[in-house]
Task: structure prediction
Amino acid sequence: MRHGYTNSTVGDGALVVKCYQGPEAAFRLRTESRFLRRLKGRLPVPPVHKVTRTSVTTAFVPGAHGQDLLDEGRAAEVLAACGRTLAGIHRLGIVHGDYGPQNMLFDPATFEPVAILDWEWAHPGPPVEDLSWCEWIVRTHHPEHVPLLPSFFDAYGAAVPSWPERHAAMLERCRALLDFASRWEPGGEGEKLWRHRLETTAAWSGL
Result:
């Protein structure tokens, strides 16, 4: 998957094999496999086929990638679906940990989610983590769609934390990913990227 960065994912049209990379790879593998099994039948997640010491294999789920749909002019529909789906995740007391259109597949006809991907960072936590990170994804990768973020927040259907709270959560997550990249490859390209992203995020001033 060209949108991933902490794993190597390959598929053959029937199965998808995800191998984990970087610090705490084994822990993230266990987290993902546990949440995928726990959420089966409760949320649209890929069915688990096999788990090994180094990989999780799931069934292939056909669908249009969320970020691709944003690029194709379907931002309002995709962001609204992201908001509704996130509300369902949070009602289960879960934080996805890397939530946004980059980790979702949609039915290209209805724009309803058919799969929520990449549960390796999932954990109990405050909703602001996911709300702010989905916003961060849009601001970083699709800045032209920032004016449509209210579609996401309105569809979420619950109180949305203030901009200072969301901004603080974005910065906290960027710092965590900078630390991750620094431990994985000190002084490497990942560390430089996340240092730049942290500086960029710190300069934002809201909608």
Observations:
- The two ends are 30 Å apart (CA to CA).
- The first helix runs from residue 25 to 39.
